[in-house]
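Today's session is about reading a structure prediction critically. Students often jump straight to the picture, but the first step is always the sequence itself: look for stretches that repeat, for charged clusters, for runs of hydrophobic residues. Only then move on to the predicted structure, which in these notes is written as discrete structure tokens rather than atom positions. Here is the chain we will use throughout the hour.
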Amino acid sequence: MINKKKNVLSGEIALNPGKKLKGCFVKGVFILTCCYAVPVLSDADKAQKIQFNLPSADLASALNRFAEQTGMELSYPTAMVAGLKAKPLKGGYSIQEGMSELLQGTGLTYRMTGGNSVTLQKVTNTDTKSDSVTLKEMTVTGESKYDATDPYDNHYAVPNSSFATKTDTLIMETPLNIQVLPKAVLDDQQATRIDQAVKLVSGVTTGQGAGGLSDQITIRGFFNNNYFRNGMRIDTNGGSDGTRAMANVQSLEVLKGPAAMLYGRVEPGGMVNVVTKKPLETAYYSVQQQAGSYDFYRTSIDATGPLTNNKDLLYRMNVSYENSGSFREFVDSEKVFVAPVLQWNISPQTQAILEMEYRHENNSYDPGAGALIIDGKRANGTWINPRLAKIPRERNLIEPDNKNPLDNEFIGFSVNHQFNDDWTLSEQLGINLLDRTRTAMNSGALNADKRTLNRQLLTSDFYTNDSYFTTTNLTGHFDTWGLKHTLLVGGDYYLQDENSVGYSSTVPSTIDIYNPVYTGLPAVNPTTRASQSFHSTTDLYGIYLQDQIKLPYNVHVMGGFRYQYVEQYNVLTKHIGQKADAVTPQVGLLWQPIKWLSLYGNYVENFGATNGQGQNGTFLPPQTAQQWEGGFKTSFFDDRLSTTIAYFNLTKQNIPTIDPANQTFSIATGEAQSRGVEVDVRGEILPGWNAIATYAYTETEVLKENNPNSIPVGSPLRGIPKNTSALWTTYDFQQDYLRGFKVGAGVDLYSSRKATFNYQDFDFAGYGVVNLLGSYTRNVAKTKVTLQLNVNNLLDKEYIHDGFIQSNSPTLQTRTTWGTPRTLMGSVKVEF
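Below is the predicted structure for this chain, in token form.
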């Protein structure tokens, strides 16, 4: 408020959650004080060491954080600090040492004017007689804290996440299983695709969906048809929608188990959320050039900083270009990605962000068409001596001319307004537009000569997948009868519009698997247009309420529910295919008996994916699921090392199965179960030594199936290894003469995977892959230069990573995703 008589403007500055600073302007002088009572500090108090972790920022912001941490009262003319920068303050300092270090190079000094009062002033020749202190040369050590926005942060463990609860909650206080891969992990892995990173989370397996043209992620045994971008849904439907660009990815979050209470239609195994880079108040620029095996080249640029002197308007721009070949014949790709972001700090309480993405890809479709050889069938229908043909892993049995271009535009807008310290309103809007064409060939069965493979061509003249998303959330903090509440009330709306026109060939195209001769793509048959084309819309509406309650003795209770309504419409037949609704609850309990240990459990229900169409253009009812989970979490060394161990039991209903009346269609009668144990350990063990260790035991089982000749009850789900494990560790040398060097190594282990949709005695064998890392970082003038080399599959292991044999299909369709041979990835990165 403004007091005209006294010429005083008072206000508050929001800082960390749950804290604020009060201050006032008196005739152009800003006086900053802590909002809570602080006793007058004695000389002994002022001499005590305080651990600081203040990043480089504008001087006014740094002084705010310094005052908050020390309880000091600062006063200075506002014009005095305008445009000045403060250097980082990290380590143990007394109050006077900290002030001197913070003001170094700014042309300012300070004067102690009382027990808790400090006045800033410009340096003059007489300032040596003031209360300022000239420090002797010293070595400062201290504990660093995780900063999600710091591009130089090297932490492997993250203390909090807002994805699991839509509130900024400590992971140790969240009764759900949430795992985060921060930027340091992504950089060390040189991850250019999502699947290269999420393998470091237990219970997550990856494949090569749609012939390598899209990300394919399976969590707790169930395949995901979407991912989330800053909490906004991006549907891929397992199709040829390209791969998520990583140039603007800050971190990846994996929420395990159903999340329909907050996010609506999702798969019950879990979700992946991509957290993108946000604009920074301090200018930062980086250029990275990567080059690797099989003609891989990738250039990426990151630039951010303020556009105005008062830093009300910030920007960030991420750009990448990638051109790559493959160890597989006739496979290459070209990818362009541009992602600008603008952030407007309207006031200390209100911020708005406008972000855009443009992605263009031109990829080759590679289903890894293999060839299954059998010596016949037994009376019960099982195969005799099933085996894959022995052909080189680089051989591609698909025609060369199979380019698949796509264009993807995303526009997002979000605004966040803080009414006061307790209540915040946020709004998100997102539009995702995808347009692609597809040329694909599927392999069928071998002829009687056991060497001639039948193939079929599938094409799309066009395919569009447009989606529109909005969500509104109100978050509040309040107390009732001594209990602390964090209340979330929200709603969302999602519209998806899919449209495709496709054709297929009716005359099989054959090829000799041992002596291939490529004759070109076969002609399509326009009469197949009706069966290969579709146009549908899906509307989803949801409202939800969640309350997180902190009880005495560090007991945390979380509960909530969501009402979801879905309506689908077949545009071609002008038929409303489905109207369905459901209420999905979520309950969680966590007890933190000691600071480093949390015991938790939860029960969650799911309103899942819609299943497509049955006979007569009808839509199948949505899938549903329920999960019980329990486990414990630990956090050591100031949240630098975290552990989660969990047991889960997950059941999914309404899985589409073959319709006995017409095998061209499906009915929703299937049921499956997934249960197991998961272990995740990640973080810093000793100074400079980071590690990630995971293990998952996942047991899947078919509980109901209307066609036992297709998938017998009791059989495991296809493509899910029972045992998976990953170990990745790096060490930054701490000795002066080796400082800047980093080495790392890891191993990925997978047990065998079931290869067929039915109960046949055929599995893809398990395997292990060894990976290495070496890097060197050096400061050159005002830049930081990093040279890095990653070696994947060091021992050149030959293996099949994923695949399937669709033996219940008349064509006996076979796909095999061959593991990539030994590859080298080099990088030069310059940051300033």
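Discussion point for the tutorial: The chain is about 5% helix and 55% strand.
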